[in-house]
Amino acid sequence: MKELFGRRRAKGTGVWPMVLPRPWDLTPEPGATIVIDPIAVSQEAARELQKVGWPGIGLMDDRFLLGMLEEGADVSSMAANWFRENRAAVAAEIDTRASGYGIGRVSKSIEVALKEASASYAAGRYLTTVRVLMPEVEGVARSLVTDRSVATRQRHAIEDFKQLMRGAPMIQEEPVETMSMYEFIQDQLFAACHSEADAQALGGIPNRHAELHGLKSYGNLQGASLMLCATDLLLRLACRILDLGYQPPSGLRS
């Protein structure tokens, strides 16, 4: 820090990955340099969102993210209000992004399904969004890691898919997105859930088994927001590894 700012005392967020402990002092002061690193802000905001089970998305501006880091901030309510007010913009953003991924390569139905899910989300039909996307995610997983000519147990397909995603390179991702949703994708969406007690223990975070086996429903703003944003991230990474030359066992779809 001294090399960057000489004798001036630096305060603020620090520079990622050397993020300073919170609370950050952002008060202007003579002789001090205020450092506000957007990646540091995104990292800390993503951690707060993850704690309350909401996703981050690049549409959230730095002022909003910083607001979530204020002492006593009700992050869950702030996220809920933000997504409620911006759900049409979120749906449009994800439709625009997906149109450039080439998602038709990984599933016969994903293009239509994602458009229907996004439209339902924008219209406030959250259960439709969740129910459309959950089986599609498994379809994408199977398309990428299984040989479709032989039977593969779901558990094996999902574990192989998660392993494949762990190796996908992160290239210019929005930090608030990857950092807020990675644990959800890796540990919660496909977690074992065999009873209502299991579902209850998972809280409000969407779980495929709980939803599709009638143990719990996530057809609300939070559940639909997580599913839509996480599906976008998964599709982006899936198509990236295809762009880099990965060949699925059953080949690419024409």
* String of helices and strands: HEEEHHHHHHHHHH
The residue ranges in which pLDDT falls below 50 over 5 or more consecutive positions are: 1-7
Helix share of residues?
55-70%
Alpha-carbon distance between the two ends: 52 Å
Number of strands: 3
Residue-averaged pLDDT: 85
Strand content: 5-15%
Biggest sheet layout: 3 strands, mixed
Shape: globular
User: Helical element count?
Assistant: 11
Please tell me about this protein's structure.
- The chain is mainly alpha-helical and 254 residues long.
- Helix content is 57%, strand content 6%.
- It has helices at residues 2-5, 38-52, 62-68, 75-98, 110-122, 126-145, 154-166, 175-188, 196-201, 208-212, 221-243; strands spanning 9-15, 18-19, 32-36.
- The longest helix is centred in the middle third of the chain and has 24 residues, at 75-98.
- The relative contact order is 0.14.
- The model is unreliable at 1-7 (pLDDT under 50).
SSE layout and pairings?
Elements: H1 2-5, E1 9-15, E2 18-19, E3 32-36, H2 38-52, H3 62-68, H4 75-98, H5 110-122, H6 126-145, H7 154-166, H8 175-188, H9 196-201, H10 208-212, H11 221-243
Parallel strand pairs: 1-3
Antiparallel strand pairs: 1-2
Helix pairs in contact: 2-3, 2-8, 4-5, 4-11, 5-6, 5-11, 6-7, 6-11, 8-11
